[in-house]
Amino acid sequence: MAPNTGNAAKKQALFISSLIVLWYSSNIGVLLLNKFLLSNYGFRFPIFLTMCHMTACAVLSYLSIVFLKIVPFQRIKSKSQFLRIATLSVVFCASVVGGNISLRYLPVSFNQAVGATTPFFTAMFAYFMTFKREAWVTYVALIPVVAGVVIASGGEPSFHLYGFIMCISATAARAFKSVLQGILLSSEGEKLNSMNLMLYMAPIAVVVLLPAALFMEPDVVEVTVTLGLKHTFMWLLLFLNSVMAYSANLTNFLVTKHTSALTLQVLGNAKGAVAVVISILLFRNPVTFQGIAGYSMTVMGVVAYGEAKRRYK
């Protein structure tokens, strides 16, 4: 192998490794900061927090695409395409808000256990909405995914019914959005890459979330300003949290682009486990053997489901 070829390969490997580290840091960082702000900091405004995330995504997406030209700019070509994107944006808002609300009541470890059931909801929505059938082995692999969460729920010392319902709802909405995206933007002329889709979805989300936050969280401005005056780093934490939310979307796209969707899926399974361990160490939430066993079963089910889908395409 020529020296230049070897150096290029090393640089590429270093670049991909750096991307993966940044992807892990952004995803786990935004999750832990969400938990810290919503449960440990007195900032009890999940809708407003989601609006901050979407505002950062709107501004930074515009800068990344229009000025930095990370990906080519794609225009919306019709009113119907805009309405489809708006529909996706509302569903996406519901999933993020639901997830943030659940973090007020549930530990990150249990939140991640429930979130790992996304493949179950995706398979169900795909079955009923598109009549897409998978091999029977694929559906069998979903049994431990659900069973693991049932077991983990029974062994969760900090179980909260409302938080659990919101977490399940957020997980279902996330799966619904992915299936809906495949249906609404399936034609070649209307397909958008994930970066351009975020560019259009984020501003719509802000428009939806702003009145919702003011109506459902009426004291958000007063409490946020008070917390900002009381805690020196309040605004910095909120800003960092919002930037991380965009970074998670950006690195998700870049890791998929430079590796593969399968690699991202494998990394995602490991990310959940890493997030659980870090959250337990940071927040010291109690865990039981039953909870760990249930979560482990869910993760193994997700891995088996991914492998079954790959083999029986």
Automatic annotation (TrEMBL):
> Which InterPro entries does the UniProt record give?
EmrE-like (IPR037185), Sugar_P_trans_dom (IPR004853), TPT_transporter (IPR050186)
> Keyword set for this entry?
Membrane, Transmembrane, Transmembrane helix
Give the Pfam families listed for this entry.
Answer: TPT
UniProt superkingdom:
Eukaryota
Carries keyword Membrane? yes
**Bilayer topology:** Multi-pass membrane protein
Q: What is its main location?
A: membrane
Q: What's a GO cellular component annotated to this UniProt protein?
A: membrane
The Sugar phosphate transporter domain is annotated at 16-305
Q: Where in the cell is it found?
A: Membrane
**What parts of the sequence cross the membrane?**
12-33, 45-70, 82-103, 109-129, 136-153, 159-176, 197-215, 235-255, 262-283, 289-308
What's the name of the protein?
Sugar phosphate transporter domain-containing protein
